[in-house]
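Quick question about two entries, pasted in order.
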Amino acid sequence: MKATTPAISAASLALALGAALSLASAPLTAQAADNEKCYGVALKGKNDCAAGPGTTCAGTAKVDYQGNSWKYVPAGTCEKTASPTSPTGFGQLEAFKAMQKDA
């Protein structure tokens, strides 16, 4: 009987850990549902995650309005948000090659 106790404890621990991890990811899923990735609107070092080759995650945008870096914005507002490097002058829902800003 004592041999099964560790197995039950391990199973209980795994179940509890799985439940905790799924609860922790719920707010992130809710955030993604209410927001959209908007490319070309993040300022240098202020992007929400990976900004193309040579970057890893949040805060790695090398320049303002980098075309392959993104920030979460409220759903439906990306293409209304100004981006001086975008071909349209507004944020994009997909990465783009940034145009030169006028100096």
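Here is the second entry:
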Amino acid sequence: MKTLPQINYLFSLLPITPTDNWFQTLNSLTTQFYWKNKKSRISLSTLQNSKPQGGLEAPNFLYYFLSNQLQYLLKWIHTDQSSPPWLQIEQNHCKTTSLSDLPFLPQSIKKQDYYNNITVSSTLTAWWKAHEITKSSLAPCRLSPMWHNPDFQLYNTPVYFPSWQHKGITHLHHLFENNQFISFNTLIQKYGVGRDQFLQYQQLKSIIKSKINTSNNILQSSYLSEEIFKITTPKKIISKMYKLFSLSETSITLPTTKWEKDLALPPNLDFWIQINKNIFSMTTNTNLQLIQYKTIHRIHITQGKMFKMGLISTDICSQCTLGHTDDYLHATWSCQPVLSFWITVTETLSCILGCRIPASPTLCLLGDLTHITIPTKHNNPLLISLTIAKKIIFQNWKSKHSCHIT
């Protein structure tokens, strides 16, 4: 609990971007800490994922760094009378380019002199990295500036019409209506552009259309832009940004393929999200949550796995007479002493709860409640009881005949 605030403090103050190797080293040290210098059984990226997606929401230091850097970008966008004095210093470095326009310029601005300013470059680098993580597009959008923009060049120089800027024409959305480039007459009526500037109009129209397919492009801002610019108050600003990055990962980080093969389950994303949610909603007891979490992730070492590691001479289960390979499903369910234990557990729970609890691996191992009919008030007690039963199995992992209800 002490380390993360200390690192966040550095992230918020130092205007430098750590190297990829630095983050890799930090992640390596974190993994060693989590697993007590033993080989990890669940990857750090999985642990950092959101709980519904199969993670434990462990801190992602890269996401925290980006969140800290992007809080300054918001100050570029939302300026007011209480803006800090450093904003004016950065604006002076950018000269004719407004700070609020920088997020909507292409990465080719790295060639500009103002990019040599370490605070500006660090913030923009974080912005581009955030787009990469959230799979957002940096394509020209309605908020892109037209002037001093490397995307829009006339005679190999960024286009700039001072008289148009003075009339309030500064961004792409000023030149589009209903996703169509406005006519010259509309431009005259709306902004008072002189009729003698038709040539500039045609030049600008040609430049923009060469970069944007106006027939198919709605000039939508990127997902990241839309979401971040909704943040208008400084309260919990880092947490809000961090959540944006966390929610960008939508894949399930579980061994779903193995479970679906073992239990003949059809692929179903919503099913696995609910299984993950059940882990943390059934109880606030972190020990029980961890037992169920480890079960879902199949991290326990079976004889089959030990055989593959070359630690034993056979993968056949030594605790029953079935002669089956001791894979994860066998070890936690179909092994004779384990299955007998599960039957006893479900029969006992049926008597206690006054309703039939089937001896089903999807229920007992995964915590799937969709195929049983019980009062809602019994859901959590049932899941807790089944998790305690799994705890007994894991405590007697090497002597499963000792599994019993006391």
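Reply: The chain has 19 helices and four strands. The two ends are 38 Å apart (CA to CA). Hope that helps.
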